[in-house]
Amino acid sequence: MRAFVAIIRRDLLIASRIGGAGALPLVFFLMLVTLIPFAIGPDLNLLSRIGPAILWLAAALATLIGLDRLFQADAEDGSLDLILASALPAELAIVAKGFAHWLTTGLPLALCSPLFGLLLALTPQAMMDVAASLLVGTPALTFAGVTGAALTARLRRGGLILSILVTPLMIPALIFGVSAAQAASVGAASFFAPFLVLCAISLLSIVIAAVAGAAALRGP
Amino acid sequence: MTVSYLGYILAAYAAAAAVVGGLILRAVLDHRAQVRELAALEARGVRRRFRRPEDEA
Amino acid sequence: MLTVLANPTRFMALSGRVLPWLAMAAAGLLVAGFALVFLTVPDDYQQGATVRIMYVHVPAAWLSLFLYLIMAMAAVGTLVWRHPVADVAQKAAAPIGAAFTFLCLVTGAIWGKPMWGTWWVWDARLTSELVLLLIYLGIMGLWRAFEEPSAAARAVAVMTLVGLVNLPVIKFSVDWWNTLHQPASVFRLDGPTIHSSMLWPLLIVAAGFSLLALALHLSGMRTEILRRRVRALTLQQARRSEVDLGHIRASGAGL
């Protein structure tokens, strides 16, 4: 358990020294949200209708940023081998790394999404729905990414192939996340059914990332 | 009715022929290329040791 | 059986003998099946003559999944036994599976034009096939990203199994999403009831396509084994010339 916390603390420290601890993903998130009105026009009715979808898409894309360095940097300076050789099971080490990554990307995005919802003319109810769905849904995005990051850890240029591998895995989270987030604005379905499925998908992707990532990192 | 759909049916079967033909062509050409390469290497005097080549990888 | 096949040299000998028969059986079944399709199958009362597109579309859809299953089984072989023939089986299956997935999408689109009036509908089945194609393409890209075949095989094996776990989830999500956005699809490519005069040709054609895919897979595996031999010999040659260079340098230093 101490090793688990130590990995999280170390990654948070590194993130705070280099990336401003979640500030940069947030800026990227804001940029994506800013780009959409330029592409489709400043029609507030349209924006408020597709706002939850925009926020979710932006969150998925922002999660991809920096994933390729998640294990690669550790593989290069040798700390990955130390982590794998330590008493902490590789599965837990991966969960720790993923959790730290989520704390600096997914969590800030979810917490700030109501603010960005203002730009997209979301109603307060829709903002809360978006924030809640992002809060439980971004782990699914992050840990889908962690799986891909573990697979490409020892590649020098793994960024593009990582995104290509990971994006299809994000589809279920995106589908249920958006439909939970849109429950208020579109009124199509109830909030809780997709929300609970989203929770299940998040938990499942944590398990998959832990098992698959460990198998990939322990490789030859 | 049958005639108006003929184009679509032909297109579907043409696509199937193209995909299957492409796969077969690729298999044959790739196989030939590897055989030729192997022959060229052996002609240059590089011989396979008596172990599985995959062990080297 | 598996232990016999586990030796690449023996695999080459055995597969070389099986391959022509497999190819001939596939060709025979396909010719017989399509003869039945064009000579005996009546037009569907609802879909008209376009029902004939089904005889390519359904086998392609089946093979897109079948080859993924082959890939997943080979992936288990790679991860558990770390066997080179399993690596080769994985690698050979990916492009064939991708090609049949693509064929499934193309024939689906061609069938959709007269039926739905548009080339592409975000129908649950077609969308799932599209995602499957993306996964195939990602796996093929991952193969190319690694220089070393055994490292590639291991990473791809993990990705294939992750994909296998995710495919039902994706299918479920897409189905759910589809019912959310369009209440019911008007036509289905495989109707709930299918008359036996239409079913038999379909089974024969599907068997023919399956044997064809197996023959292609076997041939791909053989080529891949040859490719690895070429790679090993090239490396060996490079190493030897390095040693020679070392000798020259050493004797040069002596002078």
Number of domains of chain B: 1
* Backbone CA Rg of chain B: 21 Å
Morphology call of chain B: rod-shaped
Radius of gyration of chain A: 18 Å
Beta-strand level of the residues of chain A, as a percent range? under 5%
Oligomer: heterotrimer
Total domain count of chain A: 1
Report the uncertain regions of chain A.
Answer: none
Query: Helix count of chain B, per DSSP?
Result: 1
Mean pLDDT of chain A: 86
- Structural class of chain B, by secondary structure, is mainly alpha
Give a description of the structure.
The complex is a heterotrimer of chains A (220), B (57) and C (255). Chain A is 83% helix and 0% strand. The model of chain A has no long low-confidence stretch (mean pLDDT 86). Chain A is built from eleven helices and no strands. The radius of gyration of chain A is 18 Å and the shape is elongated. In chain B, 23% of the residues are buried. Chain B has 57 residues and is mainly alpha-helical. Chain B has one helix and no strands. With 255 residues, chain C is mainly alpha-helical. Chain C has one domain. Chain C starts with a helix and ends with a helix. Chains in contact: A-C, B-C. Chain A binds chain C through residues 147, 151-152, 154-155, 157-158, 161, 164-165, 167-169, 171-172, 175-176, 179, 188-189, 197, 201, 204, 208, 212, 215-216, 219-220, and chain C through 79, 131, 134-135, 137-139, 141-142, 145-146, 150-151, 154-155, 158-159, 161-163, 165-166, 169-170, 172-174, 176-177, 180.
Key features of this structure:
heterotrimer, A: 220 residues, mainly alpha, 11 helices, 83% helix, elongated, B: 57 residues, 67% helix, rod-shaped, disordered C terminus, cell inner membrane (chain C), heme transmembrane transporter activity (chain C), cell membrane (chain C)
